[in-house]
Amino acid sequence: MSTVINLILAESSIELVPREIWNHPVILKHARKRKKRPGEMLLDISLHYFAMRNLSMREKRGRPDIVHISLLNALSSPLNIVGKLRVYIHTLNDYVIFVNPATRIPRNYNRFVGLIEQLLIEGKVPPDADKPLMYVKPLSFRNLLRELGFDGAILLSEKGRLVKPEDICRLCVERGLPIVIGGFPHGDFSNEVKSLTVEAFSIFPKPLDTWVVVSRVIEGCERILGIYEFK
After folding, report:
1. What is the C-alpha to C-alpha distance for residues 4 and 116, in angstroms, rounded to an integer?
2. CATH number at residue 98
3. What is the pTM of this model?
4. Domain that holds residue 100
């Protein structure tokens, strides 16, 4: 079967430090340490907690590690290795990172941070590549679906109906829809994402980390698509 699974990490907690906190002492100290301008650094709640206290939607921001671990899981999976996975990172502030399936994400978190900072500043990595490993463009969730040719999506949510990962992937294949997983630590999906949801499912009766959901759903897709040949 030649079906490709489209996986979207929606409203992901990945962004450069926003202008409204550039002058906060915590941000300035970190910028001096890294020899960067405040607006050239990734927002990270583990480093910038006190600066972020008054930011809107603070509970959904400053967790680039979620995207890092999720990408490591997805791009190293058998599903991706055999060319049947496409991953898109939609961010909370409506940018989308398009990821070449051949991209090798740095295992080291600090190297990943440097790579994403370069991507968000330059627009692509490598900056001078005709065929970049990753590029970014401003797109809402709705417009991402439209650009990819979808009119809806299958959503993974702790509020969704409890099913097996294989059932989610089977429906994804049958209806030709992308699978959407939240790339944020807390809170709920926006009304826009919910309004474009065709079905909402859960794979466990309690909340799970994003990267665990990514891993389990991908494994379910591998089984449905026959990636594993069990004797």
Report:
1. 25
2. 3.40.1280.10
3. 0.95
4. 5-14+62-224
